[in-house]
Request: fold
Amino acid sequence: MFCFQCEQTARGTACTKSGVCGKRDTTAEIQDKFTGALVMLAKVSNRHPPTENSRRIIREGLYITGTNVNFDDAVIKSCIDEAHKERIALFAASATCDDFDMNKVWEADEDARSLKSLILFGIRGIAAYACHAAVLGFTNAEMDGFFCKALEAVANTEITMDELLPLVMETGKVNLLCMELLDKANTETYGKPTPVTVPLTIEKGPFIVISGHDLRDLKLLLEQSKGWGVNIYTHGEMLPAHGYPALKAYPQLKGNFGTAWQNQQKEFDGIPGAVLFTTNCIQPPKDSYRDRVFTTAEVGFPGLVHIDEKKDFTAVINKALELGGYKTDTSMTGINGGKTVTTGYAHDVILENADTIIEAVKAGVIKHFFLVGGCDGAQPGRNYYTDFVKATPKDTVVLTLACGKYRFNDLDIGSIGPFPRIMDMGQCNDAYSAIKVALALADAFKCGVNELPLSLILSWYEQKAVAILLTLLHLGIKNIRLGPSLPAFVSRNVLKYLVEHFNIRPVIAAKKDLADILGK
Ligand code: SF4
Ligand code: SF3
Reply:
C-alpha cells in the first residue's frame, strides 16, 4: 500500500504497511483501485454526456476514499462494480478498457506527484461538502465537471508542471464554490445560525451521540426520535448544528458529547448510549462499544450496522433505549475543564454587527483577529493551538471553526463588548463564513485581506483541510501558519513555490509566533 494523504501518515512520509488511521493494506489497495475506476469513469464523462448517476458515483467515490471515512472492503468493491457499470452505460466500447493504475501517480517524479496529490486530495475534500449539499438537493454541474477534469489530469502521465499548477489553484476556486453551495443548502434548509451556549453535561436516561458533518442525518434522527424519551447529543463536527433554528427547535437535542474525533476510543469506551457516524472521522471501534456504533451515508466499518439511504434510524433508537443511558446526570467537561461551549457565530451574525466591529477596530478596542481553525488530531504538538489561544491578548478576537477548536473552545477568555473573544463560526466548511467576514472587513477598510489585522493559524489533518487551504491560496491570502506539521505530499520544490508566492510557514512555538505576528 501507499498512502500519505493525511497529517498522521507514518514517519511523516507515507503509510506503506498499514495505516496509522487503522486502514489495512487491503483497504488502501482497494481504495486505489476504486480511484483508478473513477478516473476511467471521469475520462468517459469528459467525452460523453454524464448522467446524474455518474456525477453522484464520482462525488461519493471521491469522498469515500478520504481519511477515516470507510474501512469496509466489501462496500468499496461494490462501488468499483457500480463505477464500471456506469462507465459502460455511458460508452459501451469502454467495456474493454482497464482502470487507471494509481501506482503511476505514487511512483511519478516527486514534484508531479506532489501537485497531483494536492489536486486529488483537494477534490476528495470538496466532494465531501458536495455530498452534504447534494442530499439537500443542491448540486452544481461546474463542480461535478471539475471533478472529472481533475481526475483525468491526475492520471495524465504527460501533463507538465505548468499545466498542473493552475489546476491546483482551480481546485481551491471550486472548493469556494462548493462551500458557498453548502452554506446556501444549510441556511435555506435549517435557517441562519445564531449564537448558542451548548452544555457538555449528559442528562440521565437513554441517549444517542451523533457525529460527523451531515445536518440532514441529524434532522432525520431528531424527527424519528420524537416522543421516545431518547436525548440526542452532538459530537465532533456536529456541534455547530445547535446554532441552526430548525435543528435547535427539537427539545431532545440537549448538548454536546466529548471532544474531537481522535479522543473517541477513550470517550466512547463503555458508553451507555448509541453512536451514529454520519461522516468522518470514524476510528476503528473498540470492543467495549462496537455493538452500539452505527454508520450511515459514505461512512463504513466492517461489522458495524450501516443505515442505508432509506434512513430508518429505528435500530439506533432501540439501541439507545436498550442501553438506558447514565443513571444520573453526568457532568462532562472540555479539555480545559469548561462545562459549556458556544457556537453559531456564522457570517450573518458577524456581518449584522459589522458596524460595531469596524468601530471597535477603529477605536483600537479590537487590535487583531486570529482565525485559529482546522482539524484536530492525535499529535501532542497540537497543544500549540491551546497555548496560542490562551496567550492571545485581551484586545484580540479568536475566530474558529472545524474540530480543532476543541483544543480551546471550553476556555473562558472573556469578551469584547457584546462578543465573546472566542467565536465559533461552525464546521470546517464554514471556512466560507470566515472568508465572507474577511472580505467584508477588507471592503470596509478599503484594503486587501492581507493588509487586515487578521492572521490565520491553521491546523490540518485530512483532505477537507487541503481543499480549504487551496481556497485560501486561490484568494491570494498570504502568511498562513500551518501545523502541526506540513503535508508529506508537498515536495521541497512545491513548498518553495508556496513560500515564495504565499509566504506560507509552519507553526513553531505559540508565544514566539504570537509575538512575531503582533510585532512584539
Ligand atoms: Fe496513513 Fe493517513 Fe493514509 Fe490512513 S489516511 S493510511 S493514516 S496517510
Ligand atoms: Fe475534523 Fe475529521 Fe478535519 Fe471537518 S472531523 S474537520 S479532522
